[in-house]
Each structure stands twice: as structure tokens, then as C-alpha cells.
């Protein structure tokens, strides 16, 4: 019965995925239109933008122009294989995410005075791992709704981790899953900005949990200047886990900000412009000042 159910689900999701593919547009290289990497601005200081789970650089389409207008060069990174057709998407691995982030930091470092990082959700977990190597360190980070653990608020009966362990061992035919929850977005006028994938390969979920396990022991050694911004009622990430990392980490300066009236999609949700102002001020006045003092 289990194998039959698994097979039926796998075939159903494949059929639904084929239909979904007919509703979206891809460029000649297979990247979903609107999801390519980008660079905006001509500032001396650069900001690397790293997106989250099932997403793309499109999530920063509000934040990036505002940061560029305030004097930063912004580069939106597309994590390897994200926003590509499933055959390519399912070849992605967390080691590729880490190395792509490190390469982007190194490239920006060659051309700019200082390099900062803004990361959302899974992108924050990738960023934490990427800058754990001193050669890839940045001058400051702003983590928006960072993923240190998954919230159980929308998980029926069992915690998310229990469902993951159970299904990862028992699903034989299913290689992709359909996202069943709508984006945690309070500003419905921003729904048209979403370019999230409705179908995600199981390997992304497996790599995600592996990355979270590796990051668990990194708090005490983490010392990059840190601005952490959480949505009070986030349905996707576990805010308590993020706050534990914040309080345990060795970052100086560090600041925690809680946002009311917005969901997990902080880069495009209500108050996104205030987050831009906070990040720009933190980078220039707090992280920048700390860097100058250290250099002296």
C-alpha cells in the first residue's frame, strides 16, 4: 500500500509539474524569466544578495534598487541550478551553494572597498557556512528571516524534522514535492512579485537539513558584524533557533530587530523599505566603524 501510494503521488506530481511548466516562461538557457543574476549600482561598497529556498534573485527586486540608490553596488546571486527545469534543478548540492557564494564574495572583493551580505531564509544558512572560512569573510551581514531551523507551526501531527526523517527514508519513487502552502506574505499587493518554484526536488530538502546540522556548531566562532531581522509571526522559520544563534555568536557589533505586520517574505513584504534603511545604516555606521577601528 505504501509503495503504491508513493508511486501514485510521484506520477501525480510529475503530471502537475509538466502542467506548471507550461504556465511559466524560460530564457534560451532554461532560467525562468525574471530570475537571473543581476548587478545594480556603482558604489564603492558592494552588497551580495543571497536568496532562499525555492526562490531566486527576484526576491530582491525591491531591495536591490533601493540599496543601489543609496550608494551600494548590489549583486543578486542565483544559487546553482535554482530556477532551472527539474532535470537540472535536482542536481544541485549545498556544497555548490557555499562555493558559489564564496566565489561571488571574492569577485566583489577584488573590485570594491568593502563587501557586505544580505541573505534571506535558506540564503542566510548558506551565507553562515560560506563566511566560516576566513578568506571568504565579509565586512557585515544582514540576515532576513534566517533559517536555523524550520518552524513547526504549519506541520500537522508531527514536527517537520520527524516528517523529514520518516519520508526521506520511505519515499522511493518521489523525486520532487509540490509546495502545499502559499508564501508567508502579508502584503498581497506584492504577490505578483513572487517567482518562487511550486515544485522542489527532494535533494534540496535533504541538503537543507544537512546544512542546518553543520551550522549548529558555528555560533560561538561566528564573529562577523551581524544585523538579524525576524518577522514576529514567521510561519516558515523557527525564530527561537535564530535568536539562540544571535545570542550565542561572537559578532560585534550585533543587533536584533523584530518586524511586526509582515511574514517570512521580508524582502518584499510590508516594511521592506525600512529594512533597507536599517541595513544601509548598519553597514555604514556600525559594521563599517568596527572595520575601521580593527584596521587601525
Number of helices: 9
Low-confidence stretches: none
Strand content: 15-25%
Q: Helix/strand/pairing class, anyone?
A: alpha/beta
SSE inventory with pairings:
Blueprint: H1 2-21, E1 38-40, E2 45-50, H2 63-69, E3 72-77, H3 86-89, H4 94-111, E4 114-120, H5 122-130, E5 140-144, H6 160-170, E6 176-178, E7 199-201, H7 202-215, E8 226-231, H8 239-248, E9 254-259, H9 272-295
Parallel strand pairs: 2-3, 2-4, 4-5, 5-8, 8-9
Antiparallel strand pairs: 1-3, 6-7
Short description:
Helices cover 40% and strands 15% of the residues. It is α/β, with parallel strands linked by helices and 296 residues long. A 7-stranded mixed sheet has the order 1-3-2-4-5-8-9, sandwiched between helices. A two-stranded antiparallel ribbon has the order 6-7.
Task: Please characterize this protein's 3D structure.
The protein is an alpha/beta fold and 296 residues long. It contains nine helices and nine strands. β2, α2 and β3 form a beta-alpha-beta unit. α4 crosses α5 (122-130) and α5 crosses α7. The longest helix has 24 residues, at 272-295.
Amino acid at each position: 500500500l505504501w509503495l503504491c501510494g508513493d508511486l501514485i503521488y510521484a506520477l501525480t506530481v510529475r503530471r502537475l509539474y509538466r502542467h506548471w511548466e507550461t504556465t511559466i516562461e524560460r530564457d534560451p538557457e532554461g532560467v525562468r524569466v525574471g530570475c537571473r543574476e543581476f548587478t545594480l549600482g556603482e558604489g564603492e561598497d558592494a552588497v551580495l544578495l543571497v536568496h532562499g529556498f525555492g526562490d531566486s534573485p527576484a526576491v530582491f527586486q525591491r531591495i536591490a534598487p533601493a540599496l543601489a540608490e543609496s550608494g551600494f553596488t548590489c549583486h543578486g546571486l542565483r544559487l546553482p541550478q535554482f530556477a532551472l527545469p527539474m532535470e537540472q534543478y535536482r542536481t544541485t548540492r549545498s556544497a555548490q551553494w557555499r562555493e558559489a557564494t564564496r566565489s561571488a564574495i571574492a569577485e566583489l572583493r577584488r573590485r570594491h572597498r568593502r563587501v557586505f551580505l544580505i541573505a534571506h531564509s535558506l540564503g542566510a544558512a548558506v551565507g553562515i557556512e560560506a563566511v566560516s572560512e576566513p578568506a571568504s569573510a565579509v565586512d557585515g551581514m544582514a540576515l532576513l528571516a534566517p533559517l536555523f531551523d524550520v518552524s513547526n507551526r504549519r506541520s500537522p501531527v508531527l514536527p517537520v524534522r520527524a516528517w523529514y526523517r520518516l519520508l526521506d527514508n520511505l519515499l522511493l519513487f518521489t523525486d520532487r514535492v509540490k509546495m502545499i502552502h502559499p508564501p508567508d506574505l502579508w502584503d498581497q499587493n506584492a504577490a505578483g512579485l513572487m517567482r518562487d518554484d511550486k515544485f522542489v526536488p527532494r535533494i534540496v530538502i535533504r541538503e537543507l537539513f544537512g546544512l542546518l546540522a553543520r551550522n549548529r556548531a558555528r555560533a560561538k566562532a561566528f564573529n562577523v558584524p551581524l544585523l538579524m531581522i525576524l518577522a514576529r509571526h514567521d510561519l516558515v522559520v523557527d525564530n527561537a533557533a535564530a535568536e539562540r544563534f544571535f545570542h550565542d555568536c561572537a559578532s560585534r557589533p550585533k543587533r536584533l530587530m523584530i518586524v511586526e505586520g509582515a511574514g517570512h517574505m521580508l524582502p518584499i513584504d510590508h516594511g521592506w523599505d525600512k529594512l533597507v534603511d536599517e541595513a544601509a545604516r548598519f553597514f555604514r555606521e556600525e559594521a563599517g566603524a568596527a572595520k575601521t577601528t580593527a584596521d587601525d
